User: Fold VWFA domain-containing protein from Candidatus Contendobacter odensis Run_B_J11.
Amino acid sequence: MGLLLDRSGSMTRHMALANQAMLALALALDLLPGVACWAAAFPGGGKHRIIPLKHFPERAFRIAGRFAVDSFGGTPLAGALLRAGWELIGRSEPRRLLIVATDGQPDQRDLTRSILARCRAGGLEVLGLGIGQSLDEMEDLFGRHDAVTIRTLQELAPMLFTLLERRLTQAA
Assistant:
């Protein structure tokens, strides 16, 4: 399982919520048997670089402070998806899932859609978690069945359950 956090300048107003949501997910995933979690934020120091937040063997409660990132720069989501895909695609787990917390405004929308399609064709399920954005914008990028939005941390669990229920019933 992977978590990818957009920390671009357009996320400034919603960065605290995005940080809290990703930490809450990492903490919850640590409690699930058989689930390994990796997390990163983007952009990093360069255009296509990421900032590692959690490596697979680490426990989220021990490194929670890493999930307090500031907003910075553009939104090179395509490059971040490539890196996340590289981290997850070779994993041995039978199901590989990536949740992207973003405002849905990547620098290169067409390239991002192409990378999303490649990730999905390679067996990686990619879900969009919109932070303070309209659902239409998130669905336009990630697809109708693969996107939800939240405006408060209290909405996180119900919206993710809705999203996962959609994914599981669609796969059945």
